[in-house]
Amino acid sequence: MVDVILGMQWGDEGKGKIVDYFAKNYDVIARFQGGPNAGHTLYVEGKKIVLHQIPSGIFHTGKTNLIGNGVVLDAVTLKKECANVAALGIDYKKNLFISERAHLILPTHRALDKASELSKGNEKIGSTLKGIGPAYMDKTGRNGLRVGNLLEKSFTTDYIKLRMKHQRLLDNFNFQEDISSWEEEFFEAVEFLREFKIVNGEYFINEKIQKGQKILAEGAQGSMLDVDFGTFPFVTSSNTISAGVCTGLGIAPQKINEVFGISKAYCTRVGSGPFPTELLDETGEKIRTIGNEFGSTTGRPRRCGWIDLVALQFACMINGVTQIIMTKADILDNLDELKVCNSYMVNGEEKKYVPFQMQKVNIEPLYKTFTGWKKDITQIKEFNALPGEMKSYISYLNEFLGVPVKYISNGPGRDQLVVA
Ligand code: GDP
Ligand code: IMO
Ligand code: MG
Questions:
Q1: Could you confirm whether 40 is annotated as catalytic?
Q2: Is 31 helix (H, G, I), strand (E, B) or coil?
Q3: For the structural domain made of 103-193, what CATH number should be given?
Q4: Which residues approach ligand 2 with their CB closer than 6 A?
Q5: What is the rounded CA–CA span in Å between residue 363 and residue 299?
Q6: Where in the chain is the domain with CATH 1.10.300.10?
Q7: Under a CB-based contact definition with an 8 Å cutoff, are residues 404 and 394 in contact?
Q8: CATH 3.40.440.10 applies to domain 2-100+199-259
Q9: Is 12 known to be catalytic?
Q10: Superfamily for 263-419?
Q11: What pLDDT digit, counting tens, does each position of 16-69 carry?
Q12: What is the pTM of this model?
């Protein structure tokens, strides 16, 4: 049986915290897509840690953690992450497994990411520059190197061949930076990666399912950053939605049970691209400051705005969300009023769907206004103790989306989660 936790907005919904919270109920925690563009924050015994590629179940002893075939893996970042995890007393070598089919991010992928972004000027995606796009391009273009290739004698020769191909592309971009130090780090990290438990991920996970073990698939990014259904081209390069679990782990669709969709009580986006409910005023600034809305991977300020139910309904539909987890509700504690976008005016017509090319049409969000609860909710443990104004906000969401909000996160801590 497989449950999924994924983001329904533009990432950073609090997936790391929620996966860490639920991990105790599962045997295996698996990442199925994305790479070090992800930054999943957890608090372990009061200490903050940001994971980029290691699944967020790593701090629970006795759980298996798998980096699935759908992930693009950066060995250099992994080595650093492992050092951070080890510093907290975790024996990661025991519980971390890596699929041999996961593609490797090479130093030239990072260079190509940077060169491509620079060439786009004002139209840049706002990529995290971790080499994600170029690594997935080499996967779908059938050129890439995979983790399993590390164990072959021809690895270095194959690497050099691909590197030469990349160099021609970099020359086209007129990219002049010296990346020899990146390559040095890469080959050191490759040695480190060879010591891992590299497995056939699909047999590995299906044998566990067969034995009745419980799997939690941990999404990265969010549905609006999905390469097919997000705000293309301002998206990431993988399928972030629940279908990605099947291709990113080798799991059949019938095995998927619950799909937990995470949404903030408001909305954020980091990087470029359309964001209809963005607040460019004091309220947006207030949410950013109180919510500490700065990227976990890049430190960039996140754009903030009201919750967008048109986009959330779309996310519920394409993911088959069965339960919603609302995070960062406490960030709205001080607001006099809150707004919820429940339709878009698109070129003068009211619409309740996500248009084909959001950035090319004029969208004016239409809002319903709610009274703020103006109460500190961070210590509340029971749903009944939540302010009435907040309950009205939640019941409106339940009704609109047709999927219940089952949990409300009221702080970054492991224990700050109220069951509805
Ligand atoms: P992820 O990428 O989805 O895992 O999210 P990030 O870790 O990038 O960003 C979420 C941020 O919000 C982190 O700093 C979390 O510690 C924090 N966080 C998560 N849930 C809550 C919550 O309910 N309240 C508050 N105040 N912070 C939260
Ligand atoms: P988590 O898992 C928020 C955004 C980038 C950029 C676009 C493409 O922490 O929620 P990429 O590096 O993938 O080529 O960037 O996607 N992006 C994220 N935004 N959270 C993330 O991950 C993100 N991963 C990528 O900012 O706009
Ligand atoms: Mg994040």
A1: yes
A2: strand
A3: 1.10.300.10
A4: 7, 10-12, 37-40, 125-128, 130, 132-133, 220-222, 225, 236, 270-271, 296
A5: 29
A6: 103-193
A7: no
A8: yes
A9: yes
A10: Adenylosuccinate Synthetase, subunit A, domain 3 (3.90.170.10)
A11: 999 999 999 999 999 999 999 999 999 988 899 999 999 999 999 999 999 999
A12: 0.97
